[in-house]
């Protein structure tokens, strides 16, 4: 009766965990990573091209978001925007929060593009937009792929914070299952294993992608 | 020599004119009231010790550096600043870009775009800046690649090429814009000695077959002598001496120039300059050649 691990319960919990994993955890990770990747790049470019005062304001906003806990931001947005569903709030907050991290990564990537590349675009009279799109971004992004991938994995592991605003992601599904059966160990352990099985191959994939994106020598 | 009648102002307008140009980096004054002109079709080589401001001059013409004072005129038109009723005003980016299109530059470090193929590097600006069709630009690029001896490399990426090959692509890329003025900034300094000749040979060919105005910074004195019709010797941001290569290399007037030539090109053992008859070479039977 008081055993530590019950296989029957574990098998019963598994499909529920996987369902919430696919419909919430993975959904939030993929959509929010896409938001963060695009918005982060926009923020980085804006910071480098806006006039000084505006760039300073933008830096302050980015730092403010980066330096406050995501849980606080989730709860704040949950109560501030009551007309938006918690899942959407989760996706947007994760997207914005990680965009501020990624903006820093992109900034480093952009700064790592040699000055000579910018000079060549001037010597060829290339427009500002074309310079960014054809020369700077393609070179800057290659260098940032590993960091971006690692942030995506961090985000993935932080999705359980969504339970604070009532989103039934995988861990919350596990807690509900545990509550119904007065036994939590199986569901929580399985949730951890699923996180591991998903993030480890992803990190290997990022390593391979990094190699494929390197410039041909 | 090209005719000067096609210039907007007509008459004998110089391709490049420096008018009281000043350039400071912080407290360091690099150029202090520099005046000189380069006529259309001229090949002018700037020589002098490092730090004398030669490269800064090219970078100012390419608008890679901001003028601290004075004016630069291209074909009689102000490049970045104009004198309006005695007031010095900066011109807008659109104007600068219009002037810039007439100027091409080849860099010491090639600065090819590593994310593009050789062909993409060459057609990028003709297509997106000049509005040429992709097919026309490609055809032109193939001709240029032929000219620089890299016809088979159009699909290669720059980092797959040797330094000499990269620099040849960079020359083709600059020529693809059909520039009126070509700036060559120590284009062989980053190359292995045995590669230098092939790059200079291509530039010599360009000089012989076009009327592009060239402003050259180089340490290759033989090249300066072969290609230029005027040499300017710089020291401390000033022109110390100028003349034709003939006058300049065989009868330098200034002691500063003689010292410089002695230091950079003289044979370390005999002290002879490469284009001066050296000491007699002994032959087997004791005579001299």
Question: In words, what does this structure look like?
Answer:
The complex is a heterodimer of chains A (217) and B (289). Chain A is mainly alpha-helical. Chain A has one domain (9-213): Orthogonal Bundle (MetI-like fold), CATH 1.10.3720. Chain A has helices at 7-49, 52-66, 70-80, 86-111, 115-123, 128-158, 170-181, 185-213. By secondary structure, chain B is α/β, with parallel strands linked by helices. Chain B folds into two domains: 13-102 and 181-289, P-loop containing nucleotide triphosphate hydrolases (Rossmann fold), CATH 3.40.50; 109-178, no CATH class. Chain B is built from nine helices and twelve strands. In chain B, the strands form three sheets. In chain B, strands 8-9-10-3-11-12 form a six-stranded mixed beta sheet, sandwiched between helices. Chain B has a four-stranded antiparallel beta sheet with strand order 2-1-4-5, with helices on one face. In chain B, β6 (81-84) and β7 form a beta hairpin. In chain B, α3 (118-128) packs across α4 (134-147), α3 runs parallel beside α5 and α4 (134-147) crosses α5 (163-175). Mean pLDDT of chain B is 89; it is low at 1-7. Chains A and B meet through α5 and α6 of A and β8 and α3 of B.
Identify the notable features of this structure and list them briefly:
heterodimer; A: 217 residues; mainly alpha; MetI-like fold; B: 289 residues; alpha/beta; Rossmann fold; 4-stranded antiparallel sheet; 33% helix; 24% strand
How many structural domains are formed by the residues of chain B?
A: 2
Distance between the termini of chain B: 40 Å
Q: Write the H/E string of chain B, N to C.
A: EEEHEEEEHEHHHEHEHEEHH
Low-confidence residue ranges of chain A: none
Percentage of residues in strands of chain A: under 5%
The CATH architecture of the largest domain in chain B would be 3-Layer(aba) Sandwich
The rough form of chain B would be described as globular
Average pLDDT rating of chain A: 93
Number of helical segments with 4 or more residues of chain B: 9
